Amino acid sequence: MSGFKVVIPARYASTRLPGKPLLDIAGKPMIAHVCERALAADAAQVVVATDDRRIFDTVSALGIQVAMTDPDHQSGTERIAEVAEKLGWQPDDIVVNLQGDEPLIPPAYIRDVAAALAGQQQAGIATLAAKIHDADEIFNPNAVKVVLDKNGYALYFSRAPIPWNRASFPEHHVIGDETHPHFRHIGMYAYTVGFLRRYCSWPASPLEGVESLEQLRILWHGEKVLVNIVEQTPEAGVDTEEDLWRVALSLGQV
């Protein structure tokens, strides 16, 4: 898969870690590690989208393309759509949304989600999921679950334990077998530029407000989401000081 683009939304504001994209990990800012992952995925173009001059200047000094975007955007998806318009990308161009706090994301996953979208015609968006092997994860509301149809398109996303195994829950918490596995959603997306334009024209849906899951807007408005299954859930991104230390350990730099 070649020819896809990666946009990395990066905001300075963060409740728990202000200036998160610029925090040092193993001698360089976190955003530099994320950009390296995107470049290692062989993307045709990598762009950081930010609303902060400090991030803009840091990324520019790295030699990575960066775009200033409207500070009033409500989501990274809206920020990516603005970049696509500014750079004149075409409706069929594929764009991967790579979060700026994911310095450990496997480059293969970036390629996988882009290739999955390119390999079908029914959906304008693709995402990733991995099979759940830990029963406690099914009941963890911070682990978003997804249920698929027979062709690999999402039926629903939820923080609840779906599908509900009537024979095993809640007393035994038995992991589903191959006939009804549980999948954890991985929040990486590939879109066509045409889909991004449609998405940004839609109002928020009641379901996404209830679950606090933006992707439910897509299902609410009647469009498909392709879900590509990968081998395992990647390591979590950076939200706390402890996460910074964990990521440095993973990179073998501590």
UniProtKB/TrEMBL annotation:
<comment type="similarity">
    <text>Belongs to the KdsB family.</text>
</comment>
<protein>
    <recommendedName>
        <fullName>3-deoxy-manno-octulosonate cytidylyltransferase</fullName>
        <ecNumber>2.7.7.38</ecNumber>
    </recommendedName>
</protein>
<dbReference type="GO" id="GO:0033468">
    <property type="term" value="P:CMP-keto-3-deoxy-D-manno-octulosonic acid biosynthetic process"/>
</dbReference>
<dbReference type="InterPro" id="IPR003329">
    <property type="entry name" value="Cytidylyl_trans"/>
</dbReference>
<keyword id="KW-0448">Lipopolysaccharide biosynthesis</keyword>
<keyword id="KW-0963">Cytoplasm</keyword>
<comment type="pathway">
    <text>Nucleotide-sugar biosynthesis; CMP-3-deoxy-D-manno-octulosonate biosynthesis; CMP-3-deoxy-D-manno-octulosonate from 3-deoxy-D-manno-octulosonate and CTP: step 1/1.</text>
</comment>
<dbReference type="InterPro" id="IPR004528">
    <property type="entry name" value="KdsB"/>
</dbReference>
<dbReference type="InterPro" id="IPR029044">
    <property type="entry name" value="Nucleotide-diphossugar_trans"/>
</dbReference>
<dbReference type="GO" id="GO:0008690">
    <property type="term" value="F:3-deoxy-manno-octulosonate cytidylyltransferase activity"/>
</dbReference>
<dbReference type="GO" id="GO:0005829">
    <property type="term" value="C:cytosol"/>
</dbReference>
<comment type="function">
    <text>Activates KDO (a required 8-carbon sugar) for incorporation into bacterial lipopolysaccharide in Gram-negative bacteria.</text>
</comment>
<comment type="pathway">
    <text>Bacterial outer membrane biogenesis; lipopolysaccharide biosynthesis.</text>
</comment>
<keyword id="KW-0548">Nucleotidyltransferase</keyword>
<keyword id="KW-0808">Transferase</keyword>
<dbReference type="GO" id="GO:0016020">
    <property type="term" value="C:membrane"/>
</dbReference>
<dbReference type="GO" id="GO:0009103">
    <property type="term" value="P:lipopolysaccharide biosynthetic process"/>
</dbReference>
<dbReference type="Pfam" id="PF02348">
    <property type="entry name" value="CTP_transf_3"/>
</dbReference>
